[in-house]
Specification:
CATH class of the largest domain in chain A: Alpha Beta
Largest interface: A-B, 56 and 56 residues
Helix content of chain A: 25-40%
Number of domains of chain A: 2
Shape of chain A: globular
Oligomer: homodimer
Strand order of the largest sheet of chain A: 1-2-5-9-6-12-13-14-15
Chain lengths: 388, 388
């Protein structure tokens, strides 16, 4: 296995924000996947904030959700007006304090924002993989992240932190590489998808695959399945909100009208909001990546993978200290699923703190400004740092 | 206005089950709609069970939900193996006892199972209406049902009973024609859609309209938007179930396999179940009807229509006795929405009983066998009959 680093951009932002690319699994040493297929070369795009201390003991790995990317905080240059996706949490003095910690975020395997995925070029054909891309798992994502940590010379992570599909990666890190993780913060996540969560993902996938432009996944030289991907995003987006948040934000308010139009088309504000979300998404995301990542999330099942069906057994090798956080209004991964994990951790005498945050914003709450989560994370990380 | 009746089928079934068609609003006297458009002629398909007593005081109108039809109970003949959609509730000795009551169920305006809807022939063009069909409301559905009651000579209904979109029609009957209704049973319903409910309907509609075969609604002479309609049904179907019911019914069970296939396609049982539901639906339902009826449900807002925004005011003219029923696991129309109605009724000194049934089956619970609902309805109807 060989490796190289391509510096990409360095900007003022918060402290030092760097975006880099790390490529590994060069032929003939390909990355072996859980499905038994192999793939290579594999490029992982990653961003770092803060400075790694001399003994490399202050590194934190932040893991993004389904549609996120490696750009977690700050801006790259003056033209970059949109800060990273977790800018509320990562920065000087923030919940994850970049004055103290070296924070890394990498784009997940299978995605389309710098890391290798179905829209990457298949070296065997010289064309985009499309659906010739092998099926990947949360475990495969974590394997590629581990290669990145090896490359950076980080033997022990102070913490792994992530929400939703990022939280699944957190759990996978702790069970797959228990000796590489000192603490872990899985947020608004689950150890396995419920039938309800699988159902929503499957309908979203069907929406993409029903779009004639999808062309069995080989659409890169022609029209893209935009309508299908927008629909998939709309379906997903509903599950990220809550009944209460939608009522407070939209209720039955009409869009630019005082009376009903008696026509099809976006008439209620919630309808135009969803259409806006769908249309915004197709500009930045690849439909095949959506298929692969949702499938990886559906496959994820910690108890099956590591405990022969027992969640208690699955956590038996974990040594990390945990902070588990759920949200009252998250109906995609409800609190009972977090409690199930916490119970299994406790049976293994794992040091775990659990907090259910009372918030109305649904599953997406961890992405919204709220001092409570920032304070919880800051306090927890301080404790872990002091543990030495 | 002229009218006629075409007997359709009479069969053994339970007692006497008759399916008939009633056509009214013949030109030039068209049915005036809430949108200010007009339509005619209008045919309403309806079924009756039981016998109307001489003073016509034992008539009950059953109102079906989104995809239902007039065939509520029994079978028409020996070849008809599938009984009506509410056979568990309507029949001799059942919750709605056809030995005592004359029970009517009509297919709603805008549907595609006998009554006039977008798949009907537009007399002006000699072709199917498609999206030239005018937008309809729950009020318009009830107007057409009232014409049927006039035709049958039924001045006063012993009860109007329905769940979901059928429950909206129940509420509309009680506020639009208060002197024609002696009692009412709205089940698993709401007086207005939440933003969440509108969101799901809108995404389902978008799925249909994104199907290239939809052809702006004029597809009757060509390929139908089957993929879009199947998707719409899958989205809807998820909202009719609950997290718990899906967990108990499917969990993470695989379809015909013991290990993951690492392929796209129905792999988990819940996926193939949803695909089955979608594919079954396209054989019996019209995509445009789905668009029109979901839009009517989204428009429905009792407080806006009858109370200038106040639900208390909306119920101020109601004289019916009410039995309101909700289900603990119904997250499409949660109990708080039923309680809101009940509170407004009580402020008007309306005689209302409210029951939240503890059931895991989600919104669809009222369609599933459960003695509790049958007993509640039977007892309530007995009380109303005795009042009579």
């Amino acid at each position: 296995m060989s490796e190289y680093v391509t510096p990409y951009k360095t900007g003022p932002g918060i402290g030092v924000v760097e975006k880099k690319f790390f490529t590994f699994a060069l032929p003939p040493n390909l990355l072996k996947l859980e499905s038994c297929a192999s793939i290579g070369p594999v490029t992982i795009a990653y961003e770092t904030c803060g400075r790694l201390n001399p003994d490399k003991s202050n590194a934190i790995l932040v893991l993004h959700a389904l549609s996120g990317d490696s750009h977690m905080a700050g801006v790259y240059d003056a033209k970059d007006t949109k800060p990273g996706w977790w800018d509320i949490m990562v920065g000087p003095g923030k919940g994850i304090d970049t004055d103290q910690y070296f924070v890394i975020c990498s784009n997940i395997l299978g995605s389309c924002v710098g890391s290798t995925g179905p829209s990457s070029i298949n070296p065997e054909t010289g064309k985009e993989y499309g659906t010739c891309f092998p099926m990947i798992t949360i475990g495969d994502m974590v394997e590629s992240q581990k290669a990145l940590m090896d490359h950076l010379g980080i033997q022990s992570l102070l913490s792994v932190i992530g929400g939703s599909v990022g939280g699944m990666q957190v759990l996978e890190w702790c069970t797959r590489f228990p000796d590489r993780v000192r603490s872990a913060i899985p947020l608004a996540t689950t150890s396995r998808h419920s039938a309800l969560a699988i159902a929503f993902n499957e309908v979203a996938r069907q929406a993409i695959m029903a779009d004639p432009n999808w062309s069995e996944g080989h659409y890169y030289s022609g029209k893209k399945p935009d309508l299908g991907l927008a629909l998939a995003r709309m379906i997903g987006h509903i599950t990220y909100l809550s009944d209460e948040s939608m009522r407070l934000k939209f209720g039955r308010k009409l869009q630019n009208r005082s009376a009903l139009s008696f026509e099809f088309g976006a008439e209620f504000q919630v309808e135009s909001y969803l259409q806006y979300q769908g249309n915004k998404f197709i500009e930045r995301f690849d439909a095949n990546s959506f298929l692969y990542i949702t499938k990886a999330a559906d496959y994820f099942d910690l108890a099956r993978q590591y405990g022969e069906g027992s969640m208690v057994k699955a956590f038996s090798n974990c040594t990390a200290k945990f902070l588990v956080v759920s949200y009252t209004s998250d109906w995609l991964y409800p609190t009972y699923q977090s409690k199930e994990m916490v119970k299994a951790m406790k049976k293994n005498d794992i040091d775990v703190s659990f907090c259910e945050i009372d918030a109305q914003w649904g599953h997406d709450a961890f992405l919204l400004p709220d001092d409570r989560l920032g304070n919880l994370i800051k306090g927890f990380l301080k404790g872990v740092s002091n543990d030495g």
